[in-house]
Amino acid sequence: MRSIETLLLQIFKKMSEINKWQRSFLIDHFTTLLSFMGKNNYMNLARYSKYNEGSIRSWSQRTFDYLTFNILLIESLFKESRIIALDPSYISKSGKATPGVSYFWSGCAGAQKWGLEITGLASVGLESKTAMHLSAHQSIPDGKGFNLLSHCANLVVNNKEKYLKISDTVVVDGYFSKYTFVNPVTESGFKVVSKFAKNIYLRYKYTGKPTGKKGRPKTFDGRVKFQKLNMNHFQLVTAEENMKIYEAIVHSRSLKRWVKCVVVITVLDTGKERREILFSTDLTMEAEEVIESYRLRFQIEFLYRDAKQFVGLNYGQSRSEIKIHNHVNMSLTAVSIAKAIHYFNTDVMEKKTFSLSSIKTQYFNKMYLGKIITCFGINAETNINSEHITQLENFGCIAA
Questions:
Q1: Percentage, residues of the chain above pLDDT 90
Q2: DSSP 233-277
Q3: Domain residue spans in the chain?
């Protein structure tokens, strides 16, 4: 199994702008993020790092190309079809002097809360079914008509060449199924997969003969009523006991374009029907691919969860925009590094549920055991005691 140092050195060789001093700090810092205990602040990290608090603060002001690094990290894994998931996330933050602090929507709380908001982009493998961080950017309302949809669209468009190396399919939740986001992203060469609201205004395509009357030829053949689909346009794709899937090419008035619409009707235990209206701007995309892509979008939430619970994403103490940017991206990248080493290095048939909690415990135990051996000048005789050393490193680990 590769170590963090070995993996990072392989990637840094392809990033010529990284000097040996920054290389040394990043290797130590990512290792520390996966082994420290407590809160992710400079004072606490210095207790586990070879760098003191002042050095960590100083290096946190340096810029680093996280997007390029994470793309190279993903390219070092086995090849598989991927999608790009985009989703904002709330981060708690007190005080009023931090750039971008305001009221943002927290999905966990189900309400607006005071703090920060980041918009993250992650690559999700269709085979591995796990998210790898790409880049995250803070939402900073400027009081001059800041629009989250335009902000998120610009994040994709401004780095389209790099993102297209990973995938040309961007998957977002229903909030982003608006013209302001979809149009600039699709014009940049991406396909968008998302979800429509139940009251969306969609229209069938007119397939009849010309009427012969003057004026513009008839284009549409009435509005789509989801309680009673027109089977002259919709096609039944899957029919199971509790679920039916229909697909059709329809026109979205709000998006001003034709889309592949997929309607998933699920019969609940109560006997009621639940309808989900998914869509893709790629008219040739299969219904099953649309559904799978949209469901895998949720993997980015697990990326946020692991970073918040185990790497301290929620505990950033900085009030500088660049330091916040580094704190957010380092935390999320650390989770991806752990996945690359401990999840993707195993055979597909042997893969188990990824548990960052157990991985952090292992790294802490290994670091602590190394300190004991060094301080007492013990000859560990690793070849003879490898089984006992492994047992101590795994002490306290839990199954996910």
A1: 66
A2: T-EEEEE-SSEEEEEEEEEETTTTEEEEEEEEEEE-TTS-EEEEE
A3: 4-172+298-350, 196-280, 356-393
pLDDT at 371: 81
Q: Which long-range contacts (CB under 8 A, 24 or more apart) does 141-148 make?
A: 141/100, 141/102, 147/180, 148/88, 148/119
Q: What is the mean pLDDT of the chain?
A: 90
Per the listing, tokens 């069938």 go with 204
What CA–CA distance (Å, rounded) separates 118 from 134? 13
CA of residue 155 relative to chain centroid, distance: 14
Return the CATH architecture of domain 196-280.
Roll (3.10)
State how far the Cα of 234 lies from the Cα of 245, in Å rounded to an integer. Answer: 10
- The answer to whether 306 and 356 are in contact (CB under 8 A) is yes
The DSSP output letter for 195 is E
Q: List beta partners, residue 202.
A: 252
CA distance 14 to 119: 27
Rg (alpha carbons) of the chain, rounded to whole number: 25
Structure confidence by residue, pLDDT tens digits, 1-17: 678 999 999 999 999 99
Instruction: Count Cα atoms within 13 angstroms, Cβ side, for 14.
Output: 13
Note the pLDDT tens digit of each residue in 275-314: 999 999 999 999 999 999 999 999 999 999 999 999 999 8
Please provide residue 219's backbone torsions phi and psi, each rounded to the nearest 5 degrees. Answer: -105, -40
Please calculate the CA angle 297-70-43 and round it to the nearest 5 degrees.
100
Question: Three-state SS for 379?
Answer: coil
Which residues, 6 or more positions from 5, have their beta carbon under 8 angstroms from its beta carbon? 27, 31
Phi first, then psi, for residue 142 (nearest 5°) are -100, 0
Q: Cα–Cα distance between 246 and 235 in angstroms, integer? A: 5
